[in-house]
Amino acid sequence: MSGPIYPKAARPESFADDDFLDAAQHLRRPDHTARNSSVTADSLSGSLLPHKLWMEPSGLAGQAVVRIFDAVQQTARSKGWFAASALVGRSLRDDRKLHSRERRYVGDTVFAMLRKQRRLRALCGGKNPSGQAIYAAFLVDEQTAHSDAELDALSRFLRSAGLSLPDVKARRQDIEQRFSDIASASPDAQATLIGEALSYPDWLTSLFVSEFGLAQAIAILHAQNGRARLTLRANTLRCSRDELCAKLHALGIAAEPTPFSPWGVVLDTHLNVYSLPLHQEGFCEVQDEASQLVTELCAPPPGGLVIDACAGAGGKTLGLSAMMGNRGRILAFDIDDKKLSELKQRARRAGLTNIETRCLREDGLLHLVPERICGAGAQRVLVDAPCSGLGVLRRNPESRWRLTPGDIDEITVKQRQILAASARLVAPHGRLIYATCTILRRENDAIVDDFLASHPDFVPMPVKEILSSSRAAPLGDGDRMRIYPTENGPDGFFAAVLRRKAD
Description:
Elements: H1 19-26, H2 31-34, H3 60-79, H4 81-94, H5 100-115, H6 117-124, H7 131-141, H8 148-160, H9 165-180, H10 187-198, H11 202-212, H12 214-223, E1 230-234, H13 241-250, E2 255-257, E3 264-267, H14 277-280, E4 284-286, H15 289-298, E5 305-308, H16 315-323, E6 329-334, H17 337-350, E7 355-359, H18 371-374, E8 378-384, H19 399-402, H20 405-423, E9 426-436, H21 445-454, E10 458-461, H22 469-472, E11 481-483, E12 493-500
Parallel strand pairs: 5-6, 5-8, 6-7, 8-9
Antiparallel strand pairs: 1-3, 1-4, 2-3, 9-12, 10-12, 11-12
């Protein structure tokens, strides 16, 4: 098992040291976009900016946006997107001239520009526009200017970047007009129109249209351009969800329970959660609702043996431990010792003591795990498999440009290998849970179907047998969990539960 194409390190639960990312990637879209259930030409733009800092586009915040965006582009070309993404965090932490609100603005804007760069380049009308020009086009596309004074300020900034406001608006109108007629276009033209309007590579839009159909593909891709909601999981060893909500409300923080997870709390705030004493003292963890539901599907026995085969930094591992009441034994495997060290720190903070970590060889050969570690096998084995991450694109705006069709071909081979190796660790009557944060059938249903065909000692266990039917129905077909990204909804996730027969 080599490292995933979409690494767990990029997921929000591992961002504890990067406070800018809490603002840059977890802020919710304003209410006016959340209310729009359908995707139209008029809904492709609309202000995402929480502040009017753009009114001084040549000020410190605006300069930082352009400087960091240019640096990210250069780093992506020379060292790859992983290094480029990390550069944003370092740059914001090192810029002591910016106050906290400005850092949030800069981080949010840079990630939004990365997400929308294809559309913004088209608005600039050039093949290789400068970072300043892309920032100027972004301000137009976000409809930040309304008053005469604001329009004048924006026009001056556009001219300094070699653009004119009428030209940029005309290009935007052209994009939106052609997008509104997409149903009558050819498949190739549809891919290009979606790619330009919503800012994705053509191969990815074609893949989504072939997988989901035109209307659903557009809805999913549009939702992936929004901000991921900020969701917490209550650590039930320290407090209930209701108690966590009460504690947050006492701090003046708006919070509401998640509709599906029994432990989740959604925050409507720009707050850096990691700075809260509630987080520092282990009352809660940042974890999306879909990820929490995967943990619930494991239904770990309190005194049993549970294996998290691809633990990463341990978001699901911590949830499993809490479900077990800190009893029994959890083995957390991963090939990245740094992530496992982070898991240990998080476990200490949460007061969890039944977790053991094991760093695997780079090849991740789970079938070589010695019997003395697992004994007769585990009652639960969770395979949170490396994947393309196409269900969580909004959390990683650069990944759409980094991912290639060849990456998906490669990762499906790894998924089959990991699932087959993990199956050997399951005890009779035990359960094997396969989960991904992608929504492609070839990484989900196809992997599970092939596994069942070659492993007759395993049978599927419908999700509706673990969750109540009323809860399972909106999450898939009742047999497997399928969550598609929506506006202000959970991340895109898949999960299937497989039970091993008696020997």
